Each structure stands twice: as structure tokens, then as C-alpha cells.
Amino acid sequence: MLKKISYAVGALALLFGLWGVYIRLFEGEQSANYGSYIGWGLWVAMYLFLAGLAAGAYMLAAFDYLFNVPQFKGTGKTMLWAALVTLPAGLASIGMDLGHMERIWKVYLQPNFTSFLAIMVWGYTIFLILIAVSLYFAFTAPEKKAMKAVMWIGFAVSILVAGGVGFLLGGNGARLYWHVGLLPVQFPVFAIASGAALMLLIVGWFMPNLEEKQRGDLLWLLAIITIATSVTKLYFLFADFTQSLYGGATDNLIAVNYVLNGPHAFMFWGVQIVLGILIPVIVLAQPKLAKNGAIAGLMGVFLLIGYAAARILIVVPGQVAEMLPGQAAAFHGPKLTLDYVPSLMEWSVTSAVMGFAILGILIGMDYLLGYLARFTEAKK
Amino acid sequence: MSNELLGKYASEVFAGLVAPVAEGLEISALAADDPLAKEDVLVRMNRELQRALEKPASERRWVMVIDLRRCIGCHACTVACVAENKLPPGVVYRPVVTEEIGTYPNVTMKFLPRPCMQCENSPCTEVCPVTATYHNEEGIVVVDYEQCIGCRACMAACPYGARTFDFGYNYVEQLPVFDGAIVGGETAAGYEHASQEYGEAWKREGRHESPVGNVRKCHFCLHRIKDGILPACTTTCIGRATYFGDANDPDSLVSELISKSNVVRLKEELGTEPRVYYIV
Amino acid sequence: MKTDKQLSRRDFLKLTGVTGATAAFLGSLPQAQKAIASAMKEGAGNFEAKPENQLYTVCLQCNTGCGIKVKILEGIAAKIDGNPYSPWTLWPHPAYETPVKDMATVEGALCPKGQAGIQTAYDPYRIVSVLKRKPGTKRGEGQWVTIPFEQAIQEVVEGGDLFGEGNVEGLRAVRALTDPELAKEMKAKVDAIWNEKDPEKKKELVKEFQTEFKDHLDVLIDPEHPDLGPKNNQFMFVWGRMKGGREDVVERFVKGAVGSINMNGHTTICQGSLYFTGKAMSAKWNETKGSFDSGDKFYWQVDTANSEFVIYVGVNLFDSNYGPPQRVPKATDAIVNGRKFAVIDPRLSKLAARAWKWVPIKPGQDAAFALGMIRWMLENEKINKSYLAIANVAAQAAAGEPNYTNASWLVKIGKDGAPGKHLRASELGLLTKQTVQKDGKDVTVYVDANGVEFPGDTPVALVGGVPTPINVLNPEAAPVVGDLFINQKVGEFQVKDGMQILLESAQEHTLAEWAEIAGVSENDIVEPAAEFTSHGRKAAVDIHRGPSQHTNGFYNNNAWYVVNLLIGNFDYAGGSIKASTYDRKGSKKGQPFPVLKMWGEEEMTPFGVDMLRTATTYEKSTLFDGTYPTKRPWFPLASDVYQEDIPSIGDAYPYPVKILMTYMAALPYSLPGGQKVIEILADTKKIPLFIASDIMVGETSMYADYIFPDLSYLERWEFHGSHPSVPWKVENVRQPVISIPGWPTVKVYGEEIAMSFEAVFLALAEKLELPGFGPNGFGEGMPYIRPEDFYLKQVADIAFGEKEDGSDSVPEADDEELRIFLEARRHLPKSVFDPDKWKAAVGNDESLWRKVVYVLNRGGRYQAFEKAYKGAQVANKYGRLINLYQEKTATSINTMTGKPYVGYTKYIPPALSSTGEEIKSDGYDLHLITFKTMTMAKARGISNYWTLAVVPEGYLLINSQDARKLGIKDGDMVRITSSSNPKGVYDLKNGREHPIEGKAKVTEGIRPGVVAFPLGFGHWASGSADIEIDGKVVKGDPRRAVPLMANGAMQLDPVMGNVTLSDLAGGSAVFYDSKVKVEKV
Ligand SMILES: Nc1nc2c(c(=O)[nH]1)N[C@H]1C(S)=C(S)[C@@H](COP(=O)(O)OP(=O)(O)OC[C@H]3O[C@@H](n4cnc5c(=O)[nH]c(N)nc54)[C@H](O)[C@@H]3O)O[C@H]1N2
Ligand SMILES: Nc1nc2c(c(=O)[nH]1)N[C@H]1C(S)=C(S)[C@@H](COP(=O)(O)OP(=O)(O)OC[C@H]3O[C@@H](n4cnc5c(=O)[nH]c(N)nc54)[C@H](O)[C@@H]3O)O[C@H]1N2
Ligand code: SF4
Ligand code: SF4
Ligand code: SF4
Ligand code: SF4
Ligand code: SF4
Ligand SMILES: [Mo]
User: Fold this and answer.
1) ipTM rounded to 2 decimals
2) Ligand 4 centre and the CA of B275: distance in Å?
3) Torsional class of C75: left (φ above 0), alpha (ψ -120 to 50), beta (otherwise)
4) Triad C1049, C345, C959: Cα angle to 5°
5) Distant-in-sequence, close-in-space partners of C1010: CB < 8 Å, separation ≥ 6
6) What DSSP designation does A268 have?
7) How far is CA C722 from CA C10, C63, C594, C785, in A?
């Protein structure tokens, strides 16, 4: 039942998304709401979100293959697969953000390695390959040294790239709100957290063949991870904001103000905090509820939504402070504004990306993984 | 976001620019005393430009100096730049920020023109994944429209908000067409496609043709300089507040100006080493 | 020196070794980068620096008229920069003789509007066909049909049932009087009638007229009042912005060819009272008549560059005025070089923001401030007495002064104590009238006791207490240096001199009281006064619209000019100077083409009372019945009273108009109370036929019956002239530099020429066979069949200069310059540029032609920089009598009160009705004023999207204190209402309304109680609204429909009701005397 709904949601999302993709590809970026002052919007945020998700998923896969945590036994393939789907989804999201995506090849053939963006593209491409290889070994030679080796490398890389996206923003010395030393440290934590949330969802809703006892224990373990990371994240937020407000650097004040009581404060209080942290933490703190697949899965969904919102609330506020105060009033024109709400086209494209991710994961779990398993068995 | 905040910051920026009582520099063409001793600074800078062009490119060091005491906030530079480079709606290289300061009747206005600072240590170029924006041989930060993938990383990196993205808008092209009755959008739009940036013809037709989809910025009017014409914002500055020239030429006006005590650069603390100086 | 931060960044990159990696990749340095590099070397595709791609002409975005260099790329104007030869854009301007090719990379400064000019020329909403109001639809409904040019001309000439509304008289019918001889004779008789003072005899003369011309009375508007003139006068031509050349053609057509007296410009909406204060103060002494002739319509400005201290009064120098590129560099030079200036303005203009002192005066109270200063200067003896005492040319010459005043001339004081006429020598018996023989003729002369001869009766001054006749003009006569501050009896006459009259006027109030009236502190007056009087003659007061556009504008201006006069700064470097231009009319001896006098056939002599009642006086006319007030005011001291044009037609006073033609005028938009103008324009009963020349469907032409497309300023000829703040002798030549792709041409006199304003006149003239146009228009074998036939002759006059022997002419263009001249015009169609026809227009005289080319290659003629000054004085002087006391003014009657105008510097309260009453405006307690922003020019700026990007819409400036009271926040939409417009809307007719609304801009930079809005926004036509042409909708552009235009909320004259308040002396339309209410909507 839940799965059917998920399939439907995925399909509808993809369908609605195709319209946006069409507009974006054939009519260009005028119908997007990001502009010249807030140049990075929903799509960049979703890239951070999905890339982080992939990294997180991979880390959790490592719980199975590297650390042999019993509760995770047998979930590795699924998590690797989830990573293999969410990462391209993320790359697609940022791809759509490029004014000239047809030139993306240049990043591979003519890269500038002082550019963290270039480094990240390369990093994630390598990571993508590692995921694929890991998955390959997961089927062919799960117990072999090679598998372990690859997983170790992948695990390390996953942490690096997760931190890297943090640097992508934090590296901008002029953007005080991003330029907090901890950002690269925060992002791996975010990654694990979002990975765990994804796993709550997958395990809670889509893993019928998992033996009940293990599912319960696993969900409970994930719940604990979630609670731990959530608390850490809350601390990060608290630290960041109080430090900013206390320090009183104007750009920071503007940004933090924008988050806490700006035009879109609901995104923070309502979505990121209440829906994305408080509710799940409270619910998952009760073993009985945490071990209930349906509920745990739902909490996973809440958490994911919360994390997505959190990404937006990192990307956008970092740009609302004018680099030159008064600039926005000095010259007028389309896309020269300091407020940002994603346009329908932007939502649509993101919806396509999400639809792709959801369907990708489901189809993978229901057909591909099974098929691959049989296929590799047969070969032996 | 709250206006006081902006206001506060604005004042802070300008606070850094409050004039020390420095002696006014004598660039008057017709000082009350000796009318004929002088020439318009525009003519002088033009001569100096020709002189600089005789040197190898790598030996020039182009800088711009803006005298905030002389700036009257007329925006001629802003518009001249738009006209020179046929900048489309939403793209601007040199806004002039205006701020009202004080309370009635003790109130005044301040104006801050802002071209690209042509930072010697430029965050924008470092973040470009494909080296589409870089220092050319003369040290000017250019954008190679054919190379740029439009990722806007440079926009995020620029501490001066000096970069804007070309979303493919036009000013008049889309306006009504009615042959035999009015001139019409299409005929009128001819000039919108006459950009000569970087010495190339940018027809900029269609929704995807560069520089549409690229980040754009001030380039010190490279295409004019190389033909011995001063930047558009400089020649059109009716306040004679904008000066341009080769800082490696000890006799140039700009060298003279930036050696004065009342010179500042924006956001020095970021270590970007701007090539644009302000006289306050 | 580098900061650690960068170091660490660099180190980090090194550490990660990526720089090395990068280097490896840079082997594949992207292709396009190389492309750029090489492009930059070869200069591929660049066109800007080539003289063959550059044409010099004159900007008309605003009226400053800066020289411009238009850069042509593949036939289109790709960029506009400053003309380096022009004193407007470079300071000092380089030598005129510099070869054009050497100027290829040199360019001067322009303001943002000048930079955006391309968008005026290439405005999508420009019309390219004659538009006719769709028959069956109302004026202003916005329904048009395109018709062929020839048909339009046919209909305008012959009239008929043109709109299914019944018969309309055409120009042929209206031009009832066609016989030039008859016109002459009638005019002579009418003059006789006017000069007859006795009412009875006047009646007699009218009878005589009627009998003498009994067979021709049908050509008159009203045989009972022959002095209203011929029906021809019922063709009226009204223009807004028009410059030399076109102005001369209009005069040729309207007066000389059609024979109508009615052609008026927009002077009084502009800085009217400034011109007419100048005219009154420059009234000329006529030594044979022993009385004053009219002065010149002109005004003085400050020699910005050389003043050590300037008081700018209602001068918006850093946003508008005449004009930014020309005056700003001199003012900013003053800033950095510590030359002070003060700004008197209720609003913190950008100029005020840079001033040594900003005085936010109460609007309209300038005279109070000035009289305060005058009182302080007089009582502290801070005046140039020796200069003021000089009473005639002889004394001026002796003292080496550039001019002199009538300050010491005695004025007779009436019983009521009011100053009247100057005392005449004969009245004291100092001179006696005699008739003597001069080469066979009897001439009357005046002779004094010692037998010294005077050409006529003279004014008198006390010299050492002795009454002395003043031979005013003769340099050889006895110099007269008169006593000042006289108040005594001379003979039986109670007399005072100008200074005494001024002193008493200034002493009407104490300094404290003057300050109180002006709404400033006493110190605000004394400080500038002290500074002003400590720079000798290198200090000056510069005035413009601020003091001028009030009901008391004439007296505000006069008070400020007198402040200048007291230190005698006129014609001095750094003082008050006037404009001077090369003669473009060929009126100087030896000039090749005296165009105004060149008539192939005899021209018409127009006569009669003009629609604006300016050319003659009520008392002279047959309309005078001894009663006052008149239905509408007469203007003995002003002309071109723009605000009166349409309302006078509305009231058919003094007579109805049948055909109205407008040119480049936005009357309903630009005039205060414009909504009243619309009522009349839209009424076919009041204006049976309405023709407009326009480049788009504008605020005026939207009510026209026919709109003829005009060329933009980049496509046409004009002579822009100069401004008083320019010390050099110049003439700016506007010439065609582009042609819009597919621009229509028409055939007139067999010639193919561009559709244009000129084409309309040529075609009408052809059809009506009018004198002064056609194959022999200028004389036998001298055709006037193409626009340039006229204009190039004027260029030739300018090129030749003003010396009979030609020694003042410009050099001939050499072959290289001739080549550049031709190549630079290679993109122009033959209909616009045909070298042979151009050369023929100057009589195929090779030498003259090359001189013409020389001038055209430079976009005008400019005197050498160093020629502007002779020692401490300017070279191009005003150089004659300046009237401190104005006898002519004092003897002119205000026809609304029946009383004479005040002839001296006096405080008169602002905001009075035409009959001099105060205006009730209870409940409306904010004072509305207006100003210009740098990026907007007039009604015309709205098509310039580049400048709209800087200031996208109009706004209402309001002080934070007032805003708080009214609960208005920055950016709130507000509506402006007044007792004259309680609804706060323009009624556009046909059910359309335009709200007087806009966003509030809360500021500290305006006097509390005063609100202000900028000109240029709030359009309802000019491409801002949909119109229908041939049944097809042309969508308006929302970017042009932005608020705010509040002229419609300005105070109407309560007496006439259909016109704005006016300054009856100076003629000004009043922009700054309205009380309004501002409400949030
Ligand atoms: N940008 C631009 N420049 C222009 C033009 C344009 O349309 N746009 N037009 C040109 C033309 S045609 C003209 S006539 C000139 C006009 O040149 P200016 O007269 O210098 O320009 P305005 O903007 O009309 O300035 C009127 C000033 O008077 C102030 N003022 C209002 N009421 C009073 C008062 O009672 N007393 C005093 N002392 N000041 C008062 C206003 O605040 C404003 O600053 O500008 C020319 N230049
Ligand atoms: N609120 C406010 N009102 C003002 C002023 C102000 O400061 N504030 N300033 C006043 C001043 S100083 C002036 S001078 C007047 C000016 O006002 P006007 O003399 O009435 O003229 P413009 O506003 O220049 O409008 C000219 C009109 O002619 C048409 N036109 C434009 N270009 C051309 C052309 O090339 N050829 C022809 N044939 N027609 C053309 C357009 O329809 C345009 O609307 O405005 C006055 N009005
Ligand atoms: S053109 Fe000159 S005076 Fe005008 S705003 Fe720019 S810098 Fe300032
Ligand atoms: S100002 Fe901005 S765009 Fe210009 S060089 Fe510096 S960082 Fe780059
Ligand atoms: S937008 Fe273009 S120039 Fe800027 S960083 Fe990206 S690729 Fe480089
Ligand atoms: S130098 Fe050229 S590109 Fe840069 S702001 Fe000035 S005009 Fe624009
Ligand atoms: S001041 Fe007036 S004439 Fe001069 S450039 Fe600006 S708009 Fe043109
Ligand atoms: Mo004007």
C-alpha cells in the first residue's frame, strides 16, 4: 500500500517535472526566480541535499560491509543503490542550474583546480564510480578484500565530498553567513543524518523481506542515530546563530534575521525545526513508535523534508545581504531583487529530480537488485 | 530584511570613506587664476593612454580612480556602460549607489560608483571551474563567454557584487511590430545586437547564444582601450570624477592621484587588492 | 603587500598541489581565450575609433544641446558620446582647427540621457505613417487609420466632411487674405487705429477702414474690429520644444506664407519669467524718441567656471539646468578646489547635497530672501557704488566698465508716493526742443543752456546735487556719474533715484521679518550675503525655474538679478553673463544668405491682435472699452505664454481659432492644470481642425485629427544655439546622422524627401502655391524644395561668420576632410543626403561648400577657448544699459486689475489669482513643487529604457515628519488632490481617467510641509497605453505607464477656471504655488 502510494507520488512528480524540464531546456532561465543577487536557489540546495544523501547512504552501507553492524546486515546493497540513484539526481539538479550545460564537458577537459566547484565535480564523479564499483563487488565478491578496499576508499571519499560541498559555500570569504569554519565539518554530519532518514524510510516502508526482529532493532538504531545527529545539528545551528547575532557582523545579522523572522521564517520554524526535527525526535524517542515501520518511515519522510529545507536555508540566506549595500536600489531590472521564492518552473524541475530519485530507488529495490542477484548467482 | 540593518551597514561602508581634510587636487581646467595652463583631464588621459599603448601589454597596469567628492550621482557612467556594451535588462557593470545621510535640515547625499574592482587577487577567477574568467595579459579580469558554463560561482564569490547574469532579456525587441504604422520592436532592436565587447561582435540572438546564459562584468572597456579610447564611464563622467590610466606610468594622472593620502579601496580587509581606487 | 589571508589561500592551493595539476591542464588553454587575445590585438570588428564611422551633431534629449559624436555601425547609430569640439563636453575644448581624424579617439562627457539617445531614435512606438482620427470616433478615443501623405495634405488644405461630423474648413478657406499688397495696406491702417489714443477718433478710423476696404471685409475675422486681423489669423501654430532653423522655417510659413500672426512657443512653461525679467531689465533707451524700446527676450546665468562664490537659487544644476555636461565639471572643480557655493531650494537637490550651505526656503518667498540680502548689503555699504553711479555710455567708457545702469536716473514720485516715469530734462527746462536743418531736412533736437545738442529729450541725474541731462548713448557726450540715494524735490517734482526706491523697498521689513517671511533664519541670509560681498565681482547669484515659476516670478527674479547688479558682476568673468551665437539668419553685412529676407515672391504681412494678446496692448486695441478686468489677461511684458494657448482658444478670446497645428508639444502633460487643456483639445466645436507633428502618439497628438510623423533629433536639421552660462560664441548644428531602416519618403515639388515636419510645410505650400517656397522660393532660380535648401544656407552664414570681408570665416575643408565627410555619410539614403543637391543649396560655391563641410564635420562652430575673456571681463558682452528701475514696466497696465505693474524690485506675495487675490485652499496644507531628475527629460524621456533602469518610476518626496503625521511609509501608494482637482484624476475623455497617484518616497531632504515630484513619468499616451491603428491593436508598454504625474493637481486660476496660475508680468505658468492633500490609497 505505502509502496503503491510511493510509486504514484514518484510517477506524478516525474510527470509534473517534465514540463519544467522542457521549459528550462527550450526557453532558458527567464522563468526561474533566482537572479543576479540571489544566484543560487532551489536547484543548488537540492544538489547539496541529494549529494549529501548519497554520501550518507554510502556511509550507512559501510555499516553493513565494513563494520558488520548486525542490525545492518543485508541492507548494504539497497543503500549503495540509493546512493547510486540520489547522486546523479543531485548532479542533474545542479546541471539544470548551468547557463550553458552543453559545456559541462569543459569541467572535465579544461578544469581549473583552484575552483572548488571543479574539484567537487571531479570528486563526485569519482565517488559515483566508487559507488558503482562497490555495488558491483557487493554482488560479485562481497567477502573479497577488493570489496573491503573499495568500501574503505569510498567511505573516506564520501566524507570528503560531503565536507567538500560545505567548503563550496564556506570558501566564499565574502559571504559571512557561509564562511563559518565548521561548515565542512557540519556537512558530513548532515550527510549521515540524511542517510539515516532515508534508511528509516526504506527500511520502514519498503523492506518486507527483512526479518521483524532485525527491522525493529535496525529502526531503533537508526532512531538513535537520528536523535544524536539532530541534537548535534541543533547545537550547530544554535552555535552559528548565537555567534552571528552576538558578533553582530551586519551581513550575518541580515542573513540570520532573514532565516529567523524573514519573509520565509516558516520554512525554518515550521519545516526545518518542528517538522524536520522536533516531531521526529519526539516520536522516534519512543521505542514502540520507532520500531513501527509505518511510523518510522513517515518520520524518515519528515526528516528528509526538514533536511531539504535546511539546505535551502543555508544556500539562500547567504546571498540576501547585498555585497554593496544599496546596490539593489541603484539599478533596476529583471532578476535584480533580494528576495527569492522558487518559481513554478523551478519547483517543477526539482519535482522531476525527486520523482526520478523515488522511482529509481523503488524500481531498483523491486526489480533490479533482485534481478542482479539472480543474474550473479547464475553466473557462479 | 530590515532597512535599519541595511542603512546601518551602508553608513559603515561610507564611514570608511569620510574625507580626511586633504588638499583638493588641482585638475581644474580653468582655475580662476590661469585659464590656459590646463587641459581637460579627459584629453590628458587620452594622451596618456596612447603613450601606454606603445608599451608591451604586460608592462601596463590599468587602474581606475574615482573621486567621490566630485561624483554627483548622475549615473551617466552607469548608462554609458550599458550603452557601450549593449547590456540587456538585468545586467549592469557600474551601478552608482546613492545614500541619504543625516536628518533634516542637516542632511546630505553620498554616491558610490562601482565598476569591477579588477582585483589583483580575485576570488571570482579562483572559483571558476573552467577558467572562463581570468586575468588577461594586462591584468584585467575578463569573461570568455564561449567558455563560461554559467554556474554563477563567480557571482557568489565576488565581494563587490560586480557580476550579473545574462538571462537573455532585451529592452525593445519584444515590443509590438506593425509595419507601415510604427517603427516596431524588431526594427528598433538593431542596436541591441551591436555589442563589441572584447573586440568581437556579439549578436546575442536567441535564448541560448552567449553571452546569454553567462555571467557578465566590467572589463575596463578593453575593446575601447586597445583602440586608444578611454573607458565609456570615464569619458562620459560629467563630474570628472572618474580617471583611468596606467599606474606603471609615473607621470600619469592616475599615478599622481593614488599617491595621495585621501585614497581608499573598498573592503581592503578581504585582501582582494582592487585596481579601483576612491578619493574621499 | 599581501595579507596573510591570501597567502594562506595560495599556500593551500600549493599544498594540495592542484596548481601544478592546473598547469598541466592549461596546456589545453580554452580556444576562445586565445580568440579573445588575438581579437584584442587585431582590433577585429571594432568600429568606434574610425572617423569614417563618426558623425557630429547635437543632442536634444533635453534642451541643453550638448555636442555629440554618433558612432555608426552598419548604418545604425550604435553609440553616442560627446563631441570633442564642443565647449559643452570638454573643458577647455580643444582647438576648432584640430583635424577630425585626430579627434577620432577623443570624446567628451555626456549625461545619461544623452547616452541613451539611441533609444529615442529607435523607439518602437515611433509612427511611420500619417495617422488620421478614424471617422466616426471621438478625439482621444485612440482609434486611427493610416492614410497616404498626399491625401492628408489634400484634406487639410481643402477640408470637407472629413470625419462624418459635418464640414471642416481647410487651410485654403482659412487663408482668406491672399494678396500681400492688400495685407500691407490693411496693416498700415490698423497701426493707425492702434496709435490713436482718443476713443472717438479711434471709432472714426475704424469707420474709415471699413469704407476703404469695403470690398474685402470678408477676409476679416470681425469687420467691427478690423484690428483682430484677417481670417488667416485663425490658423494657429503652437510649439513646445523648437530650435533655430525649424523656428525660422515656421516663421516663414506661418507669417510670410500663410499670413497668420499666431505662432507661439512654450517659453512661459519653461523659465518664462526669467526671460521676461531679462527683457524688462534690458529695455533699450531710444535717444531720439526720448523713451524706452523693448529689451531683448533673454536672461543671464553665472560664469560657473570663474565664480569664487555662487548662490544657486532654484537651480537644479546636478540634475538638470543648461546643463549637466557643460556646467557640472566647473561646479565639481569648485568643490575640490574649495570655491564655495550655497543652494537656496526647498528640496535637497544633489547640488544642495554638495553645497557649503543649503537653505531650504519656503517656496515662492525668494524675493523676501533677496530683499533681506539687499537690505543688508545697502545698510552695510557692501555695494559697488562707483559702478552703480555710472549713468551713460560716455561714463561707462571712461571707467572701462562693460555696461551701466539707470540707478542714478531720477524717477518722478506720484502723489500716492508711487514711482512713475523718469524725470525728463525738458520737464526741468534743462533742454529745449528746437528744429534745426540737417542736410536739407528739418530735424528736432534738444539743446541745453550752453547750446549743446541732444538727439532727443533725456533722463536726468543729480551730479553733485545739480540736475544734469544725460546723453545716454553717445560715447563722445559728457560722461555722467550721478548721485545716489536721492529723495528730494527738484523743481516742482518730488524725485528719487533707483537706489533710493530700492532702499525703501528693502526697508519695508527688518532683516528678521524678511527671514521670517522666507521661512529661514536671519543668519541664513547674512552668512551668504557676507560671503557674496567678499569676492569683488567674482561672486554671483544663479537663478532658474525655482524662483521664476511663481505668480510673483518676475519680481523674484528681478530681486535676485538686482543682488548681482549691486556688486556689478554683469559681463565679468565669474559674474553674470549672456549667451552669444553666430548669426544664422544672414543679417550681418556680407553673409552669403540673408534667408529671412530672401523671397522669390512677395511675402504676406500678418497683422492684428495675436491670440495671446502680447504683441499689442488692450488699451490700444478696439476691444478696449475702458473697463477692467478683461476676459483673459493681456501680456504687455511677455510673449509665448504657453498656458494661454489652448484656454484662449477655448474661450474664443480674442477670437475663435479654426485650425490648430502643434509641434513637439505635450501641453496636457507638461502644463499645470493640463486636464483643462484636454477638455478643449477634445472639443471639435472649439477646435474644428487639429493637426499635430509628432514622432509618436503623444499626450497632445492623441487628441489630434491628423498626426504627421516627424524625424527624431538624430535625423534632422536644427541650430541649437547656446545658453547664458556659455561664455563662448557658438552655434550648434544639428544634422541628419542616421535614417531609420524603411523610413518613408514623400514627393514634394517633384523631389523625394524624408517624411518629416519640413515635408508638411513644403507640401502645403506646394498645394496652396504659397510664396517663399518652391522652385523660386528664395528668388529667381533659387529653389526651396528640400529641407536642406534652407538649412544649408544657414550653415553657410555661420561658416562665413560676421565680418563683411569674410575674415571671420572658418577654414575650407581639405580633401581628406571632404573624403571623411562623404564616407561618414555613406549609409544615408539619397532622399536625405545627396552631395550634389547639398552643394547646390549653397549655390555650388566650392569654397563656401568646403567651409560648410568644415562646420558640419565638427557639428557646429565654436569660438576658441581663450577668446572668451578679455582680462577680468568676458569678450562676448551684454554691454549696455541695465534697468534697475523699469519705466516701461511701470507704465504697462495689468488688464486684470487695471493698475500699472510695479517697476522696481519689490516683495509681492506668491500664489495670487490673476486678479491679485489670495487663494483659499483650506484642508489642503501640503505645498506641492516639482523638479527634474538627471535621467528624465520632459515628456520625451519615457522611451529611454536604459535610463528607466536607473529611475524606473516617479515618486512623491515627502519629509519624514509629514509622513509620520499622515501615517505614510516609504513606498506607500498615495493620491494627490487639491481644491482645483478634488478627485485627483485626469479626465482623459471617452470614459478614460488617469489617477494622480504614485509611491511616497520618505526623505529628510525636503522642507517639512513641502512635497515634490520629478518630471517625466505618469504617462497616459506616448506608448504607455493601447491604441488601435487600422483596426489592429498596438499594445502599450507597462514600463511607460509607471506613475507619477501631478501637474493635474496644481492650482488653477480661480478667476478663469480653465488655466493654471500665471505670473501676469513675467508670463510664467506656475509650478510651485499649489496646496495639496496627500492620502494613502
Ligand atoms: N535632466 C533634465 N535636465 C534638463 C531638463 C529635463 O527635462 N531633464 N530640461 C531642461 C529645461 S527645458 C530647463 S527649463 C532646465 C530647468 O533647469 P532648472 O530650473 O535648474 O531645473 P528644475 O529641475 O526645473 O529645478 C527647479 C528647482 O527649483 C526648486 N524650487 C521649487 N520651488 C522653489 C522655490 O520656490 N524657490 C526656490 N529657490 N527653489 C524652488 C526645485 O526644488 C528644483 O530644484 O533644465 C534643463 N535640463
Ligand atoms: N511637473 C513638471 N512639469 C514640467 C516641468 C517640471 O520641471 N515639472 N518642466 C517644464 C519645462 S522646463 C518645460 S521646457 C516643459 C516642456 O514641455 P513641452 O514643451 O510641452 O514639451 P515636451 O515635454 O518636451 O514634449 C514634447 C512632445 O513632443 C513630442 N515629440 C517628441 N519628440 C519629438 C520630435 O522629435 N518631433 C516632434 N514633432 N515631436 C516630438 C512628444 O509627443 C512629446 O510629448 O515641461 C514643463 N513641465
Ligand atoms: S558619471 Fe561621474 S559623476 Fe556621474 S555618477 Fe558616474 S562617476 Fe559620478
Ligand atoms: S570585483 Fe568581483 S568580479 Fe571584479 S575582479 Fe574583484 S571579485 Fe572579480
Ligand atoms: S559563471 Fe562562468 S565565469 Fe563564472 S564561474 Fe561559472 S563558468 Fe566561470
Ligand atoms: S570600464 Fe567600461 S565596462 Fe567597466 S564600467 Fe566603465 S564602461 Fe563599463
Ligand atoms: S544635458 Fe541634455 S543635451 Fe546634454 S547630453 Fe544630457 S540630455 Fe543631451
Ligand atoms: Mo524648460
Assistant:
1) 0.95
2) 10
3) left
4) 60
5) C346, C347, C363, C926, C927, C928, C929, C959
6) I
7) 59, 10, 21, 29
| Per-residue pLDDT reduced to its tens digit, C562-607 | 999 999 999 999 999 999 999 999 999 999 999 999 999 999 999 9
B158 and A323 Cβ atoms separated by less than 8 Å: yes
In the reported structure, the alpha carbon of residue B222 is separated from the centroid of ligand 6 by a whole-number distance in angstroms of 9
Contacts of B164 in chain A (CB under 8 A): 36, 336
- The span from the first CA to the last CA of chain B, in angstroms, equals 30
Chain B, nearest residue to C93 by Cα = B40
Instruction: Enumerate residues 6+ apart whose C-beta is below 8 A from C1020.
Output: C699, C986, C988, C992, C994, C1041
B118-130: pLDDT as tens digits: 999 999 999 999 9
Condensed to tens digits (0 to 9), the pLDDT of residues A206-249 reads 987 788 889 999 999 999 999 999 999 999 999 889 888 888 88
For A121-155, letters b (16+ CB in 10 Å) and e give bbbbeebbebbebbbbbbbeeeeeeebeebbeebb
H or E stretch covering A372: helix A369-379
Nearest bound ligand to CA A39?
5
Q: What is the pLDDT of residue A181?
A: 62
- How far does the centroid of ligand 4 lie from the alpha carbon of residue B128, in Å? 12
Which residue reads 569620510 in cell numbers?
B18
Evaluate the CA torsion angle A263, A267, A269, A270 in order and state its sign. positive
Minimum-distance ligand to the CA of C344?
1
C341-344 and C309-313 beta bridge pairing: parallel
* A100 and chain C in contact, CB less than 8 A: no
Residue of chain B minimizing CA distance to A115? B127
Give the whole-angstrom CA distance, residue C714 versus residue C698.
Answer: 19
Q: Rounded to the nearest 5°, which phi and psi values hold at C1022? A: 55, 40
Which residues in chain A have their CB less than 8 angstroms from residue C13's CB? Answer: 114
Distances (CA, A) of A357 to A19, A141, C339: 17, 27, 71
Select the residue from C19, C132, C950 to test the B interface by mutation, using most B Cβ atoms within 10 A.
Answer: C950
Question: Closest Cα of chain C to A112: distance in Å?
Answer: 6
Asked whether the beta carbons of residue C122 and residue B196 sit closer than 8 angstroms, the reply is no
Q: Is the peptide bond between C323 and the residue preceding it cis, with omega within 30 degrees of 0?
A: yes
C18 neighbourhood in chain A, CB within 8 Å: 113-114, 119
From the CB of residue B280, how many other CB atoms can be counted at a distance below 10 Å? 17
Alpha-carbon gap, residue C19 to A113, rounded angstroms: 7
Q: What atom in ligand 3 is closest to the CA of residue B76?
A: 1
Peptide bond into C475 cis (omega under 30): no
What is the rounded distance in angstroms from the CA atom of residue A82 to the CA atom of residue A134? Answer: 13
Contact C315, C592 (CB under 8 A): no
Please state, in angstroms and rounded to a whole number, the distance separating the CA atoms of residues C233 and C219.
Answer: 10
Task: Measure the CA–CA gap between C953 and C940, rounded to whole angstroms.
Answer: 14
Express as a percent the part of chain C with pLDDT over 90: 95
Q: Check if C33 contacts B (Cβ < 8 Å).
A: yes
Kindly report, residue by residue over A277-329, the tens digit of the pLDDT: 999 999 999 999 999 999 999 999 999 999 999 999 999 999 999 999 999 99
Compute, in angstroms, the gap from residue C101 CA to the centroid of ligand 7.
24
Flag whether residue B147 sits within 8 Å of chain A, measured between CB atoms: yes
Residue whose CA is at the smallest distance from ligand 5 atom 8: B128
Helix, strand, coil % over all residues of chain A, rounded to 5: 80, 0, 20
| Nearest protein CA to atom 8 of ligand 4, as residue | B124
Whether B132 contacts chain C with CB within 8 A: yes
Mutate to test the interface with B, among C101, C107, C694, C945 (most CBs of B within 10 A): C107
C15 touches chain A (CB under 8 A): no
Single-letter residue type at A314:
I
Query: Is the model's pTM score more than 0.90?
Result: yes
